[in-house]
Specification:
Elements: H1 5-8, H2 14-27, E1 33-34, H3 46-55, H4 69-83, E2 93-96, H5 100-110, E3 119-124, H6 129-136, E4 140-145, H7 161-166, E5 167-172, H8 185-198, E6 201-205, E7 229-234, H9 235-238, E8 247-251, H10 253-266, H11 272-283, H12 286-308, E9 313-314, E10 321-325, H13 332-341, E11 344-345, E12 347-348, E13 359-363, H14 368-381
Parallel strand pairs: 1-11, 3-4, 3-5, 5-6, 6-7
Antiparallel strand pairs: 2-8, 7-8, 9-10, 10-13, 12-13
Length: about 375
């Protein structure tokens, strides 16, 4: 059987390999503290759970791809409160089944080889889904390295004019996975200028926008008057709702119109009962503040022991991640394997692309008690 070249050319999804390594070590009787995947394990707020349960009797029929008006309105209102932007819930918002599927399929809307728009720009190290989605759209993928010396921001001036001219989509992700870095407003402003000049869509994955510790980060939404912008966000990290699969795209009305045309064929909104629970989640900030405080406590526990052991934490201003430099040039997979033998699961930086080599990522998803146990293990392992 012949496969799509895009599928045949893909390597195993990195976290599948991590799961295999975890099973091997667990089978040897090692108790694991798992900082590998960014999958929150805290319970979803009871008010959100209750809203979902109460909506079950109201649910009937297939959910429409445009989503419930109440959810679009809640998202638009949240964007206004959070980022100070006015969003039209009818023309500039569409709910999504989480953000992953929307991110994966986005290039299919915009890549046009015959029209000279055949490039998708991504950043590395990074979430692999934008790149994989671009490959299935038959786009050429151009990766921009995120280096520590540049604050994990891409060097926009290094991109040649031909790449900008051919770009259909340019992806950014701040606060950043895996580095935890944030981006200043000037970065979004410069990228929006380039988007307007070269007629590409600025696509911003902002799934970690609410997990910050000092100052709340800005959004690409704040430059959408300058260029065509699409912002992807989700309740997965903000509200510990990974299993609900509820997100949104907000952006320029032309982009949302394209999504409205595309998604009835290829995607859908979440189930109606999930949408009604999502309305409650977007309208409430108390549970988000509690989540931030919890991550801050776990972060402090790990920062203390890592600092005492002489490991450098890079980036890591926001998100649920700590991006930690490997000691003495040790390869990231070797360092992660060494920690795994002691029961500490982390993700090697190489899993996120070549530019991630030399680092490991801690996802602060274990409980506080598990983090305290990890501190004890790290005392001996490092």
């Amino acid at each position: 059987m012949r496969l799509s070249p895009a599928l045949a050319g893909q390597s195993t999804y990195p976290f599948v390999r991590l799961d295999e390594a975890k099973r091997r070590v667990a089978a040897q009787g090692v108790a694991l503290v798992d900082f590998g995947m960014g999958d929150p394990r805290e319970p979803t707020d009871e008010r959100i759970q209750r809203a979902l349960a109460e909506a079950l009797p109201l649910t009937g029929g297939y959910p429409r791809a445009v989503g419930l008006p109440e959810l679009r309105e809640a998202v638009a209102a949240w964007c206004g409160r959070r980022f100070g932007v006015e969003v039209d819930p009818e023309r500039e918002v569409i709910p999504t089944l989480g953000s992953k599927e929307a991110i994966f399929s986005f290039a299919q809307l915009l890549v046009d080889p015959e029209g000279g728009k055949d490039v998708v720009v991504v950043t590395e190290p990074g979430y692999p889904v934008p790149e994989r989605g671009a490959a299935f759209a038959r786009a050429e993928v151009v990766s921009l390295a995120l280096s520590e010396k540049r604050g994990f921001l891409p060097d926009l001036d290094s991109v040649d004019d031909d790449t900008w001219r051919r770009a259909a989509v340019v992806w950014v992700n701040y606060p950043n996975n895996p580095t935890g870095a944030t981006a200043p407003a000037s970065f979004f402003e410069r990228l929006a200028e380039l988007a307007a000049e070269h007629e590409f869509v600025l696509a911003s994955d902002e799934a970690y926008s609410e997990l910050w510790f000092d100052e709340p980060p800005g959004s690409a939404l704040q430059v959408r008057d300058t260029a065509r912008v699409a912002v992807f966000n989700s309740l997965s990290k903000r509200s510990s709702m990974t299993g609900y699969r509820s997100g949104f795209v907000v952006g320029h009305e032309d982009v949302i119109a394209a999504l409205r045309a595309f998604r009835p064929s290829a995607g859908t909104a979440p189930q109606e009962f999930v949408q009604r629970a999502s309305v409650v989640a977007w309208e409430d900030e108390e549970h988000v503040e509690q989540n931030r405080a919890l991550y801050a406590r776990k972060r402090a526990l790990l920062l203390e022991v890592l600092g005492r052991k002489g490991l450098r934490v890079a980036g890591s201003e926001a998100t649920m991640y700590l991006w930690v430099a490997s000691p003495d040039g040790e390869p990231s997979e070797a360092f992660a394997e060494r920690l795994l033998e002691h029961g500490i699961v982390v993700a090697p930086g190489a899993y996120f692309g070549e530019a991630g080599e030399g680092y490991i990522r801690f996802a602060l998803v274990p409980t506080e008690d598990e983090c305290r146990r990890a501190v004890t293990i790290l005392e001996d392992a490092l």
